[in-house]
Design brief:
Five copies of one chain form a homopentamer. The first copy, chain A, is an all-beta fold. The first copy, chain A, has strands spanning 2-11, 14-15, 23-29, 41-45, 54-59, 76-81, 84-89, 92-96. A five-stranded antiparallel beta sheet of chain A has the order 4-3-1-5-6, with no helix packed on it. Chain A has a two-stranded antiparallel sheet with strand order 7-8. Chains in contact: A-B, A-D, B-C, C-E, D-E. Chains A, B, C, D, E: Keywords: Bacterial microcompartment, Carboxysome.
């Protein structure tokens, strides 16, 4: 899963079938220390993520099955809102609460 | 999903089965601010996107199922034409209407 | 789909089951203007592409199903031989016939 | 599969269905010599990997099937804890025990 | 498929189910001229590849089905040992026997 920060919303009236009502958020990928890496992408959200939240995103074919009986045309979905991480930073370990 | 801008068309007479009549558009990937990033790719379109439109593109195995009962040999499909985005830009939030 | 140019052939006697007789071509990925980008890869071909042709390539899990009833161990397949493209180039639009 | 080193943990209370109780580890991708490459990602772990371990990670749609009868929304899973590798280094071959 | 050269072995005692006895090789990706590109990865091998061999590797969800009735948790598999390639090099075409 990729680590990311929600930085915005995107709206599209004209879209493929099966995507009505799906919330679409713009994600800034970040590394384990919260630093921005690479370019933005868009992920579906069903768990109530909002701007500023640090999130876990599942990409690729797996994300298609957020409704098992009704696969839809997406390739990225937010699967968790991060409470905290514990990461070694060089020699020193650090704990941080990302969304407090 | 990737953010992109439609920059052209591509035509191929000789092709694999199941792709007859499918509109194929050339996409310039962009970031959340509309800036070009990375290299071009080609996506199928069924929702009427045209040159200059900002679009959302689903890639990978998910895109194969634009017709659930008849999966086809594609790996990218336009799933939405973007009306507008709302993205934080450093400290300041910005709203833009991409396709007006 | 990726844009590419066929630059060669590859032969392998010892291979996994199900790949006998499958033509394997070496592809140079190109951008919408035909400029080489990134590194070479190999794609299966069933539509008669040859060296110098500009082609469309489907990658990933989708390509496995070139024979729906008999999925095989590939991750890239040529799905079209490009006749022509029409791409905006900065302010000016350009039309080109890639394989003439 | 990618080679990686476990560098931390991530916790998320609010998450998608089917992910309760799944251990999520932060991975630093490494090359065959153990050198850090690219950016961090998160993988599910069911085999008891811990911080400092060198691991093999399966990514993409394959990882969804860690429970065959109950596919879940993940795109990376640790499939092995590396005991040792044997890699040529330029002209010289080297053997190393990564997790001793 | 990616082009690669086998540069080593990796051993893991503790691993996910279904991977017992599977040979795992470390691959150096190469371009069409045999030049190293990008970073190492690990692929399963069932066709007897060994160190120094140039190989074709299938990645992603396709590789999961090396045993159709018993999909396993891998994302890369060697599908062929390259005998020879024929690639244009600028204006000049070149033929090489990679594994002789």
């Amino acid at each position: 899963m990729r680590l990311g920060r929600v930085i915005g919303n995107v709206w599209a009236t004209r879209k493929e079938e099966g995507l009505q009502g799906l919330k679409l958020l713009i994600i800034q990928p970040v590394d384990a220390y919260g630093k921005a890496v690479r370019t933005h992408f868009v992920a579906a959200d069903r768990i109530g993520a909002g701007k500023g939240d640090h999130v876990l995103v599942t990409s690729g074919g797996s994300s298609r099955f957020i409704d098992k009986d009704n696969p839809i045309l997406i390739d990225a979905v937010i699967i968790g809102i991060i409470d905290s991480t514990e990461v070694e930073r060089g020699e020193i370990d650090g704990t941080s609460n990302w969304n407090d």
